[in-house]
Write a structure and sequence with these properties.
Blueprint lengths: L2 E4 L19 E5 L8 H4 L6 E6 L2 E8 L2 E4 L17 E7 L3 E2 L5 E2 L2 E9 L14 E7 L12 H12 L5 E6 L9 E5 L4 E8 L2 E8 L5
Antiparallel strand pairs: 1-5, 2-3, 3-4, 4-6, 6-9, 7-8, 9-10, 10-11, 11-14, 12-13, 13-14
Length: 214
């Protein structure tokens, strides 16, 4: 049975800074809606968002859905989030040139973020300990917020963001226990920068800066 989880942002007037030793990136609240959203998306995307800022200024801005449909999580431990294939998670804007988890260049603009888990096959071995990802699609190429595209269909949409045979991807994961929300945390020696938010009772982390080979 599908359960609805409502995003509670509660970020008005909040600026979350990293400790002094890790101020490469910080998360700031956005009190206005994502720009240029088609009506069907504006109806489901929260008007409050998050800005990830770093040494060079704003890296990206993210707005999550007001509510995310969830399903029973598969028994596969490598899938960590109870979200169905193709579900719209939110939208992301790169104000300048951006990049995805593979280091692919992504043009400035607004993109949808849809959930997918990558195939359990040899081509993706070692990509990440979890198989949860968000695939980016240019907003103009994503026509229906309620759509649930299958894996192959979503990959074809996302190639319009990457401009390559591989989709544009960002890793999703469950935040480390004890993480405050919202917050940016650093992972690994060659650091990934992770935005941690809470969607109702569901914590979600999305790696917004960092690169993995695979």
């Amino acid at each position: 049975m599908i359960k609805r989880i409502v995003i509670s942002l509660a970020v008005a007037g909040l600026s979350v800074l990293l400790p002094a030793a890790a101020q490469d990136y910080r998360v700031e609240p956005i009190a206005s809606a994502a720009p240029d959203l088609p009506a069907g998306f504006a109806a489901v995307i929260s008007p409050q968002g998050y800005r990830l800022a770093g040494p060079g200024g704003t890296w990206c801005e993210v707005w999550f859905r007001q509510s995310i449909p969830t399903v029973a999580k598969p028994a596969d431990d490598s899938i960590t989030l109870p979200i169905a294939q193709g579900t719209l998670v939110g939208v992301l804007r790169f104000p300048g040139q951006g990049s995805d988890r593979r280091g692919q260049t992504i043009k400035a603009g607004l993109y949808t973020l849809r959930y997918s888990d990558y195939p359990s096959d040899g081509a993706h071995q070692g990509v990440a300990p979890q198989r949860d990802f968000a695939l980016l699609t240019p907003i103009a190429a994503d026509k229906d917020a309620a759509a649930l595209p299958a894996f192959d269909e979503l990959v074809s949409w996302s190639r319009k963001a990457s401009g390559t045979p591989h989709p544009a991807v960002l890793s999703l994961e469950v935040p480390v226990g004890g993480t405050n929300f919202p917050a940016v945390t650093k992972e690994g020696d060659n650091p990934d920068w992770v935005l941690n938010v809470k969607v109702g009772d569901l914590p979600i982390a999305i790696i917004l800066v960092g690169k993995v080979n695979g």
